[in-house]
Amino acid sequence: MREKKKTLLLPYQLNYFNIQFMRFILTFVAFISVFVSCTTDVDMYAEYKDVTIIYAMLDPRADTNYVKITRAFCGTNDNPINANEVALIYDSCNYPGKLDVRVIELKNSHGGPYEPTHREFVLDTITIHDKEEGTFYAPHQVVYYTTEPFNTGANGSKYKYRLVIFKPDGDTVTAQTSMVGNEEFVIVSGSANFQINHTDDLGKILFRADGSASLYDVKIQFNYREQLTGQEVKYKNVSRSFGTKPLYDFQKVDNTENLYYQEYSLNWLFNALANAIGGDTIVNPNHPNVVRYFDGYVISISAGGDELNYYYSANQAQLNSPIVLVSTYTNIDGGYGLFSSRVTIEKPVRLSAGAMQDLFGKESWGFKEQ
Q1: Is 179 exposed, middle or buried (0-12, 13-18, 19+ CB in 10 A)?
Q2: E strands, 209-252, where?
Q3: What is the pLDDT of residues 297-320, one digit of tens each?
Q4: In sequence order, which residues have a C-beta less than 8 Å from that of residue 232 and are 6 or more positions away?
């Protein structure tokens, strides 16, 4: 798919795999204010026309998927607008009534062309009532949703989904994305080793890549319970994300087709626990007795489609550029935004016998076997 760029910043930006739905950033204001302060001779505004903005991250494992459809506005030289004020007005961001929004399923079998499966469903609207106040209107947000299942592919088949929006003015907005989360995408590692003593050695987290994904984020998390004498149990964890990056930035296992790995320090767990727990919480006479229990170690990997990867790459290039550019990748035909897919898989993993021995051997931390 060829990358497309358009010169209009979206009224919200994505935080990729840690996306908090509908958390918006209106940075176009800063850009436009620079030019307003420099000259009054430049025609800053196009003729009035609403611009459709779409954001959706389809997740085949979710029971409900949401699509945010809103609109942006331009003013005129005779009637300029304050973007900060307009963003707080419900009617300025939403289309009146309900749009005709449909999703069409396409299937590819064994490398052939994608063809319609004759499965098509209409999205309904729902209002979310708990959005925090911020750049855009709150607390009520209208989103489109569907509870229809999204297929991911198996036995040589793959799926794409096409979004079609029929606007009140007769225009049509479309977008298309591949669906991640096929049967190939699995975490292979079944155990993890950590050491309390200093070492430069590294461990490996093995996974099989998703045939339709190109952007990944690997995370590890150690879960435990903590209880002070006479107080309620608290559930805690220490975790690390290795960052969002394309598949080619991972190491590939030699002589395999799609087996990759992420390296980690064997000292990470005990260093993280030392920061979280602190000093000798048991032997300190001024501190109540503490008991802790190990609740499991989990590896999670998120995978995103090509469209999300293009968006991520374009925004990373812009962040690293010495020149501020008001442009971003979009795969929306007739509008702006992003229509892609993502999925997260998790796997509880055993800690090695040596790691468990080191954990329980650190008596001042108070870890007990259940």
Answers
A1: buried
A2: 213-228, 234-246, 251-252
A3: 999 999 999 998 888 887 777 666
A4: none
Tokens of 42: 């430049």
Q: Are 331 and 56 in contact (CB under 8 A)?
A: no
Distance (Å, whole) CA 177 – CA 59:
12
Instruction: Out of 39-48, 134-143, 323-332, pick the least confident.
Output: 39-48
Among 49-53, 70-74, 161-165, 335-339, the range scoring the smallest mean pLDDT is: 70-74
Q: pLDDT-based confidence at 73, cuts 50/70/90?
A: low
Q: What pLDDT, on the 0 to 100 scale, is given for residue 43?
A: 43
Q: Which residues contact 340 (CB under 8 A, 6 or more apart)?
A: 56, 57, 58, 177, 304, 305, 306, 307, 308, 311, 331
Query: From the CA atom positions of the chain, what is the Rg in Å?
Result: 25
Bridge partners (DSSP) of residue 158 are: 108
Q: Where are the domains of the chain?
A: 5-179+305-341, 186-301+347-368
Closest CA to 194 of 120, 291, 264, 277: 264
Tell me the longest C-alpha to C-alpha distance in the chain.
Answer: 75
State what percent of residues in the chain have pLDDT above 90: 52
Mean pLDDT within 208-228: 93
Q: Where are the alpha helices (DSSP H) in 13-159?
A: 28-38, 83-86, 90-93
Distances (CA, A) of 282 to 44, 224, 288, 295: 66, 17, 7, 20
Rounded CA gap, 178 and 211, in Å? 10
Binned at pLDDT 50, 70 and 90, residue 215 comes out as very high
Measured CA to CA, the distance from residue 358 to residue 360 in angstroms comes to 6
